[in-house]
Design goal:
There is one protein chain. The protein has 424 residues and is an alpha+beta fold. It is 30% helix and 32% strand. The protein is built from 6 helices and 23 strands. The chain has a 6-stranded antiparallel β-barrel with strand order 3-11-14-13-12-15. Strand 12 and strand 13 form a beta hairpin. Helix 5 packs antiparallel against helix 6. The longest helix is centred in the N-terminal third of the chain and has 37 residues. 20% of the residues are buried.
Length: 424
């Protein structure tokens, strides 16, 4: 019995389909064989991790490339050029202002009405010529009153003098008292002073009366006339409009200028101040006289540098016998100096004006801008002279942007005058 049971168990464990019977076959057919999927899941996870890492790496590389491209293209584009050096700056061209050698505004010194005027603008007059006559009826009456007061003072003086002499003669005989004598002498002294006061007042009024005649103080030409016949001239200092037919004392009635010799004032930069010596030859050119020049001579300087403009005021005198040159005109003054000054010519656009002075931009070998302070001489239109601040052969930025700062990275384009090439 036990052997059958054991045989049956072995047969069952042996898996013989025929021994198992039909029920065993159906049970085996309904159960599929098991497969191991763990390796496939691990492989998929690894692939996902690799894909994520690759995507992140690509994105970082793209961001780095974009940042590098942005930094490279954000830098302003500039061009550089090497300044040309000139060593023969023996002619200095500066702007000048022509003025009359002598100019005087003529004011009225008395109150009255304009009776007549005899010279208009552009008229040449000689010293002492009568320019205008002012009627002063009130002043004339004051003069007559002053004369009468002077006569009365003199009459009183004569009477006091006679009285004092009589009292002095009678004092010895005791006919008069000493007190009466002293009183007579004091009255004489008072009357004498009254005469002196009346004479001074009369001279003052007569001097004002002389101002009725307005005369030319020197030879010259009339450049301004502010009066007309019948206008009231007032010396009270009150402001009166011309429309009311009056001229106030704070406004000149004539301007007269001497124009046979003219003064030309020039502001010379501080760097050229040592060359400004008396006798330096000067040539004047004016836009209204193309192709012509007028010769003058430097006669004096202010011997002081203007602390605001850093310039020396120089005066050039030029003869104007024909009267062609006019005061107030603009001129270019060509000063011929004996000293030669080496200068560097840079484009006008290369100058950078900052609150503390003028600068130019340079580029170092790392591609960064450097601002260098310079001393500028003459400005020649499209170019300018740089006297100090630049080394020999040092290129400058020809077109610096307004926002250029010291140490800012820039991109230099290649140009014909560029000795540095392209800074990268």
């Amino acid at each position: 019995m036990s052997e059958e049971i054991g045989t049956t168990k072995r047969t069952t464990s042996g898996g013989d389909p025929q021994a198992m019977g039909p029920h065993a076959e159906r049970a085996g057919a309904s159960r599929p064989p098991r497969r191991n999927i763990a390796p496939w899941l691990l492989l998929a996870l690894l692939l996902l991790i690799v894909a994520v890492i690759y995507g992140i790496s690509r994105r970082r590389q793209a961001e780095s490339s974009l940042a590098h491209y942005t930094d490279a293209n954000a830098a302003p584009v500039v061009s550089v050029s090497v300044p040309a050096v000139e060593t023969s700056a023996q002619e200095i061209v500066l702007p000048g202002n022509i003025q009359a050698y002598t100019m005087a505004p003529i004011y009225a010194r008395t109150t009255g009405y304009v009776k007549a005027w005899y010279y208009d603008i552009g008229s040449h007059v000689r010293r002492g010529d009568l320019l205008a006559v002012i009627e002063t009826p009130e002043l004339d009456q004051q003069v007559d009153q002053a004369k009468a007061e002077l006569d009365a003072a003199k009459t009183s003086e004569r009477l006091a003098k006679v009285t004092a002499m009589r009292y002095r003669a009678l004092i010895g005989s005791h006919a008069v008292t000493q007190q009466n004598t002293d009183t007579a002498v004091d009255q004489l002294q008072t009357d004498e002073k009254q005469v002196l006061s009346a004479e001074a007042n009369l001279r003052r009024l007569e001097a004002l009366q002389d101002f009725e005649r307005v005369v030319a103080p020197f030879d010259g030409v009339i450049t301004t006339r502010n009066i007309d016949t019948g206008q009231l001239i007032t010396t009270t200092g009150s402001t009166v409009t011309m429309g009311a037919g009056t001229v106030s004392s704070n406004r000149e009635i004539f301007d007269i200028s001497r124009v046979d010799v003219l003064r030309v004032f020039v502001n010379v930069p501080q760097e050229y101040a040592p060359m400004m010596r008396k006798g330096v030859s000067a040539v004047l050119t004016l836009p209204q006289f193309p192709g012509r020049s007028f010769h003058g001579t430097l006669v004096r300087t202010s011997d002081a540098i203007n602390p605001v403009m850093r310039t020396l005021l120089a005066e050039v005198d030029v003869r104007n016998r024909d009267g062609e040159l006019q005061p107030g005109s603009y001129t270019e003054v060509h000063l011929h100096v004996t000293d030669s000054v080496p200068v560097r010519i840079v484009p006008e656009s290369a100058l950078i004006l900052l609150p503390d002075g003028e600068y130019v931009g340079t580029v170092d070998r790392s591609g960064r801008a450097r601002l260098v302070r310079v001393t500028v001489g003459r400005e020649l239109g499209t170019t300018a002279e740089v006297l100090t601040g630049l080394a020999d052969g040092e290129p400058v930025i020809s077109n610096p942007p307004d926002s250029l700062t010291n140490g800012e990275r820039v991109r230099v384009v290649t140009s014909a005058n560029n000795s540095m090439g392209e800074a990268r």
